[in-house]
Amino acid sequence: MVGRLNTSGRHGRMAVGFHWLSAALVALAYFTVEMRGPHTSWMHVHVWTGTFLWVISVGRLAWRLWHGVPPPVPGSALSIQISRVVHGALYVFVLIQPLLGMLIYNLDGKPVPLAGFPQALYLTGPVPNLAHGVKAIHEFIGNLFYCVIGLHASAALFHHFFLRDGTMRRMSFN
């Protein structure tokens, strides 16, 4: 049993699970990239986390397309549009950023290890000259999304503590 599906005012358990698992994986990816320093084990965890985030994100997007989302909380047309843009940007981020990371590995001539599986993932063959440029894009997007994630979290807290409109409860398990 999947659990409660979306209702007119809340996301279902599966959507909520995808959301919080994605948030945890993004946080872990950021943590591991900041911790990596000279330790390659952190980089392996970063790559595994990103790969798993991508798999979860594809499933999350498929779930969203199949089951839809509850209508937005009533608000101004501008706030609803900003919400849509930020959520769209977050989806692009969790789908594109891990692919860019995997591409960097492959362009450097390394396979993307899949945790728990004997095979590795190849999106392309080695092209070392492109790896540096793709890495710069990956890092730029990663830094940019500190701001977008912060905006998303700040808006959720603003809705919860100041507007008290139930926005955060839409993404809770109870």
Question: How would you describe this structure to a colleague?
Answer:
The chain is an all-alpha fold and 174 residues long. It has one domain. The protein is 68% helix and 2% strand. The chain contains 4 helices and 2 strands. It has a two-stranded antiparallel ribbon with strand order 1-2. Helix 2 (40-67) packs across helix 3 and helix 3 (77-107) runs antiparallel to helix 4 (128-163). The chain is elongated and about 50 Å long.
Lay out the secondary structure:
Layout: H1 13-35, H2 40-67, H3 77-107, E1 112-113, E2 120-121, H4 128-163
List the main descriptive attributes of the protein structure presented here.
174 residues, mainly alpha, 68% helix
Percent of residues in helical segments? 55-70%
Q: Supply the number of helical segments.
A: 4
* Sheet with most strands: strand arrangement: 1-2
Domain module count: 1
* Fraction in beta strands: under 5%
Number of DSSP-assigned strands = 2
- The rounded Rg comes to 18 Å
Shape: elongated
Note poorly predicted spans. none
Order of helices and strands: HHHEEH
Structure, briefly:
This protein has 174 residues and is an all-alpha fold. It contains four helices and two strands; from the N terminus they run αααββα. The protein has one domain.
